[in-house]
Amino acid sequence: MDFIGVLIPIFGVFALGFIGQKVWKFDIKPISTVAIYLMSPFLAFRTFYVNEITMDYLYLGIYLAVLCAVSIAICYLLGFLNRWDTNTTSGFILSSAFMNNGNYGAPLVLLIFGETGFHYAVILMVMQQLIMCTVGIYYAAKGGENGGRKVSPLKEVAKVPIVYGAILGLILNVVQINISGQVETAVSMVADATIPTVMIVLGMQLANITLKKLDYSKLSAALSIKLAVAPLIAFVITLFLPVDDMVKDIMILTAATPTAANTTIYALQFDTKPAFVSSTTLLSTLLSILTIPLLMLLIL
Fold first, then answer.
1. What backbone phi and psi angles, to 5 degrees, belong to 14?
2. Chain centroid to CA 7: how far?
């Protein structure tokens, strides 16, 4: 019951966007642009500014980098074998290689491991945000090249201010510069609104999906990688890292969380299979109600 309680707010916010889109038919693109270019930098800044930088960042960063690289390699292999175009392969990567260890994984870890485990969940969230706003945007922009306009993925990454927000927050953290109370309040107001906005946009995008047009073979493959293969990769990675058993369990558990909601924003922004990415996000979240408890039985 506690596990279901963690999911109720997540699905509630999704439902808000879904219902709103069905009733009022919003133009989603401007809202996603606001989330990426105006709101996300404040979330990244605060995340890197308030959390103490320790050696844990190195080990967990290695874990996330290797997990992401191996997942992307699997996606490329499937794309090569099936002769997918760049748009399809990039959309598949967005659906399979990035986990929701923020608004899903962090509360889950807090529920299972308490405050001690939550500390590591926050570090994972910080590092994952950095990967998402660089590697994730790179592949979203790369997939957008097939949309009838020329896009430079590296230039698109450089243009997204979330990277600079993260760097500024990290610098101020390291040199221990304190920002004033009023500025910190303003930053927190925008940062707190970012994740709900992203989730609302995901719900809105889901309202526009026509399930008949989805490629269920690709969808099944993406879900298998995200919910089954990723935690197996994570298990192998943990065998080589000098961390305790609890941290290893957290790594494996967060690897099995659903597709990150941010990928829907990126896919929509660059027209990189947004319907497919949104569907994978939704279905992986629904299926995780079954897969996460099964994984917990195996590792805990």
1. -55, -45
2. 16
Domain count, the chain: 1
161-210 pLDDT, tens digit per residue, is 888 998 999 899 989 999 888 999 999 999 999 888 988 988 888 888 76
CA atoms of 39 and 36, how far apart (whole Å): 6
Q: 239, 253 in Cβ contact below 8 A?
A: no
Nearest one of 108, 91, 93 to 271, comparing CA atoms: 91
Q: Is residue 27 part of a domain?
A: yes
- Is residue 208, in this structure, part of any structural domain at all? no
CA dihedral defined by 251, 252, 255, 258, rounded to 10 degrees?
-120
Q: What is the CATH number of the domain that holds 253?
A: 1.20.1530.20
Q: CA torsion, points 287, 66, 75, 34, in degrees to nearest 10?
A: 70
Query: Which structure tokens are listed for 29?
Result: 């693109």
Whole-prediction pTM: 0.85
Which residues make beta-bridge pairs with 99?
259
Q: What is the DSSP letter of 73?
A: H
Q: Which domain holds residue 177?
A: 3-203+213-299
